[in-house]
Amino acid sequence: PIVRASYFLPQVDAWRKPSEANLSEGTGLILLGLVKKMVFADQFATVADQYFSGVSTYSGALAAWTGVIAFGMQIYFDFSGYTDIARGCGRILGFHFPLNFARPYMAVDIREFWHRWHISLSTWLRDYLYIPLGGNRKGRIRTYVNLMLTMLLGGLWHGASWTFVVWGGYHGLLLAVDRLVRSLSGGASPAWRSSHPARWVFGFMTFILVNIGWVFFRAQS
């Protein structure tokens, strides 16, 4: 997690010797992270690497979706596994790091996905890019532009490659469309956020859209 000074330094000032509960919780998080990484991420990586290293060899939609979803699973279990290990190490040392992944693939729309995925990064992008650019305070068009700029820079943050820029722009576009739909509906929270039957349909659509974005993130060119 990207832990901010305002969150971490007070814990340094108020540090106490870790309790037995800290040790057991931290060990549990580390083991969970290792399982995510070694049991799941590394196995999905084998499938994803095989597909993306020889796309022309594997023709057809089934092979394509298998490779892409395998990478989507790999990157989730990698990222969340690493942060679980970091949180566990922190807990053992007497520090508390915030949750960084909150079942993101269960999100019902792209906005909720970014509230659940790499939370410390997405909130950093919001607070240090989106809001300083003006956020949603300068009209509808400027809001869409700010969303695009934030996600383009967020993509570039992952690496100096056009594939990451395209990935960021893709998510910026999805967030802009989401914002437009909300504004046309009066800004009300969608009914499918709770127990509405359509929740699973929109959740599946969001999952597919996110995985399409992973193509740009993983592709070599």
Shape: globular
User: Approximately how much helix is present in the residues?
Assistant: 55-70%
Number of helices: 8
* Total beta-strand segments: 0
Strand share of the residues? under 5%
Largest sheet: none
Oligomer: single chain
Unreliable residue runs: none
Would you summarize the structure shown here?
The chain is built from eight helices and no strands. It has 221 residues and is mainly α.
Question: What can you tell me about this protein's structure?
Answer:
With 221 residues, this protein is an all-alpha fold. The protein has 8 helices and no strands. It has helices at residues 5-13, 20-52, 61-92, 110-116, 119-130, 140-157, 162-184, 199-218. Helix 2 packs antiparallel against helix 3 (61-92) and helix 3 packs across helix 8. 27% of the residues are buried.
Index terms:
about 220 residues; 8 helices; about 70% helix; mainly alpha
Give the SSE map.
Layout: H1 5-13, H2 20-52, H3 61-92, H4 110-116, H5 119-130, H6 140-157, H7 162-184, H8 199-218
Helix pairs in contact: 2-3, 3-8, 5-6, 6-7, 7-8
